[in-house]
Design brief:
273 residues, alpha/beta, Rossmann fold, 7 strands, 13% strand
């Protein structure tokens, strides 16, 4: 198990976030947990109360994230690992005007939320002169758009480009930037999927591979690797053939449909009459 001394994790309520927190706490690290499910995070904190702090900010709220970072820096010092893991998923239909709110909220959490997570720690991490890692959890869905999933794919594609930019900016420093591209993980975000999920990976295994890859300095980590190979193989097909394959798959549930996962901060326009 790679050793990190002080870690910050957003999205600590979900399957991957919880697995990361457990493994880091087991290794002896101090861990700051950010999420919206207080009982879930408290259960994690109970594993090592003296090495865990809990916060419940909206990751798209820059002021709330800055307050969380200020507390962390004051009480524990500069982290050597910041994992921007918070994310939401859901289907999207461009023809339905109410789904524009879904896209806006997804971009706020999945894309803006990564920048608001990194920003308040960045100067302190650079000034410390110590090695540190900034980790953004993207998705193989950011490699190519999929029918009925435009908002999620756009948010993850934007995140991949943002991480590329940040990585280039930080090359002269001792900070590294890591892009994580999971395929299908066995979490609440995939529980409602009715389509095939090749390479489905459990969160504990994914967390272990993620932390090992970051410790090894790998800038691009696909979980599991074989789903990356499959995606790359499909990308070699003519676009029309690729689209035809994807169009034959069931679509991800849209917000407020059966099987959809909640999107924090999203109103319920589909429930209105």
């Amino acid at each position: 198990m790679p050793t990190f001394q002080r870690a910050v994790i957003t999205g600590a309520c979900g399957g991957l976030g919880q697995a990361l927190a457990r493994q880091l706490l087991d290794s002896g690290a101090q861990v700051v947990l950010g999420g919206l499910n207080l009982p879930a995070m408290q259960a994690l904190a109970d594993l090592a109360p003296e090495r865990c702090r809990i916060f419940t900010p909206d990751v798209s709220d820059a002021q709330a994230m800055q307050a969380m970072a200020a507390d962390c820096l004051q009480h524990w010092g500069v982290p050597d690992l910041v994992i921007a893991n918070a994310g939401v998923a859901g289907g999207f239909e461009t023809s339905d005007p109410v789904d524009l709110a879904v896209m806006r909220r997804m971009l706020e959490i999945n894309l803006l939320g990564v920048a608001t997570t990194f920003q308040p720690f960045l100067s302190a991490m650079q000034d410390s002169g110590q090695r540190g890692a900034l980790v953004g959890v993207a998705s193989v869905a950011g490699w190519r758009g999929m029918p009925g999933n435009g908002a999620y794919c756009a948010s993850k594609a934007g995140l991949i480009a943002y991480l590329q930019s940040l990585r280039a900016e930080l090359r002269p420093t001792r900070l590294t930037v890591h892009t994580i591209s999971p395929g299908y993980l066995r979490t609440a975000l995939t529980a409602g999927n009715t389509f095939a999920m090749p390479g489905l990976l459990g969160p504990d295994e994914a967390a272990r591979d993620l932390l090992r890859g970051v410790a090894q300095g790998r800038e691009h980590i696909v979980l599991p690797r074989r789903i990356g190979w499959l995606s790359q193989a499909l990308s070699l097909l003519p676009a029309r053939w690729h689209d035809r394959i994807l169009l034959g798959q069931p679509r991800k549930p849209r917000a407020h449909q059966a099987g959809a996962t909640p999107i924090p901060g999203l109103s319920h326009p589909h429930d209105k009459t």
